[in-house]
Amino acid sequence: MRGPVLTGFRWVVVAACVGSLAACSSAKSAATTTTTPPGLKTLTILVTNDDGVGAPGINAVVQGLRALPHTRVTVVAPLTNQSGTGGKTTKGKLVVTRDTTASGYPALAVHGYPADTIVWAIDDHGISFRPDLVVSGINFGQNIGPLADLSGTVGAARAALRRGLPALASSQGVDDGLGPDFAEGVIQVDAWIALHRTALVEHSYGSHPPEGSLNVPTCAGGTVRGPVFAPVATSLGGLSLTAVNCASTATTFSNDIEAFNNGEAVISPLFPAG
Question: How confident is the model at residue 3 (pLDDT cuts 50, 70, 90)?
Fold first, then answer.
């Protein structure tokens, strides 16, 4: 069955500048960029990942988010690559140091797992505000099907959602040696935010915060379609995790792997039903 499609989802993203910024002055003064005139509501976003604070994916999404109007971006990410750590957390006190993204945007680096960044920022009040949204990623590689439960990118977003925070895990696919097209992922992340922005800043979502795990193909040919909604595949069942065909015109799928392989950006629940 064809999954629901969000029409008008793709937006043009204006690239942010990539100049170096000075590091923040203390561990609790995570750097932010605010572009909101007086009287307008600012969207506050906490960004984390599982590839580490210096990874290209988080750098790309931070630059994309900074280009959005009336938006404040704070980065709290793992110090080192923590891919495949799922929702693991560290016992005891967390160590946090000042750092930067690859483009020099100030960040706070947690010496631990992706979910630890949420524990420190929210439970330990490492940051002085409760963000409107947590964006985790953009991950290097797709987190579809059985990979989702292993993903630290998804693990961090799940930790945020458990605390009642809207959360988006974002992952950019790789296929047969083709590196991730993070620019495409940024377009999809920014568009998801545009779709939900009013609910996010107004906190008008009640007991069901906007959430999802977004997986975006990288296309050798053709273009990314979608996004569509699909449940997470519970097993491979003969499916391939690297068989993307962005030239496909297929319109049917039953799970996230099939939709992804059809060349569609796919959004799945952070916590599968059942």
Answer: very low
Look at residue 234 and give its three-state secondary structure: coil
Tokens of 129: 């505000």
Q: How far is CA 175 from CA 97, 145, 229, 244, in A?
A: 35, 16, 21, 7
Closest CA to 246 of 216, 218, 222, 214: 222
SS3 of 139-182: the string is EECCCCCCHHHHCHHHHHHHHHHHCCCCEEEEEECCECCECCCH
Q: Which residues of 164-176 are buried (b: 16+ CB within 10 A; e: fewer)?
A: ebbbbbbbbbbbe
Residues 213-247 pLDDT 10s: 999 999 988 899 999 999 999 988 888 888 899 99
Closest CA to 168 of 146, 145, 141, 191: 191
Contact 266, 226 (CB under 8 A): yes
Tell me the pLDDT band of 126, cut-offs 50, 70 and 90.
very high
Separation of alpha carbons 8 and 163, rounded Å: 31
